[in-house]
Amino acid sequence: MPSQIPDYYRLLGVSKSANQDEIRTAYKKESLKTHPDRLVNATPTEKQKATEKFQAVADAYYVLSDPDRRKEYDLLYAANRPSSDPSSSSNFFTQFSSMFGGGGATGTASAQGNANNQPDAEGVFADVFEELLRPEVERRAPWWAYVGAACGAGIGFIIANFPGLMLGSVAGHRLGAIRDAKGKSVAAVFTQLGGDQKAEILKALAMKVLGSAM
């Protein structure tokens, strides 16, 4: 009897013939709709359901955005019973951990998976939204960029006095836009923000991607 596997195409709202751009766009929309940090006043049950759906959407993107994983998944999809229940994704990764496990692409924020060998949902989100996240995080955590600017300015002053100070500050600001003094990425800084700040950022991203703050 065929097993039940998650219907990742349905979870993302795309057809089986969807190309990579369509899958990425669909992931952006669905992840913003289901991100648990958006639900500031949610009950524990509502938060848990959103977290489960958010993870399943990340799983779907992780599998379908990679040609090799998608090919393997499509073979299973054709031979089994697809389910739109988000909880089936956890069982799927547990059952097929040797094929899809490992938690994400090597060298990315999504490389750290959970106990079920699923990709890190927050890492997947940060990988996809990095460019859109950066200005929003800088706006709410200006110290993050200023630390880099101060470091760059100091180096520039040592090298070429005042002219170097100015050039070093500009270069350092861009460095700070990527990493702070402790080497934290935009994703790491985002996850450490308070709940209200994260909710504000997610609303801003929703306005850009969905045209609505939801």
UniProtKB/TrEMBL annotation:
Residues 7-77 form the J domain. The keyword Transmembrane helix applies. The keyword Translocase does not apply. Keywords: Membrane, Transmembrane, Transmembrane helix. GO terms for molecular function: protein folding chaperone; protein-folding chaperone binding; unfolded protein binding. Gene3D superfamilies: DnaJ domain. It holds the Pfam family DnaJ. InterPro entries: DnaJ_domain, J_dom_sf. GO terms for cellular component: cytoplasm; nucleus. The chain crosses the membrane at residues 143-162. SMART domains: DnaJ. This is DnaJ-domain-containing protein. It comes from Dendrothele bispora (strain CBS 962.96).
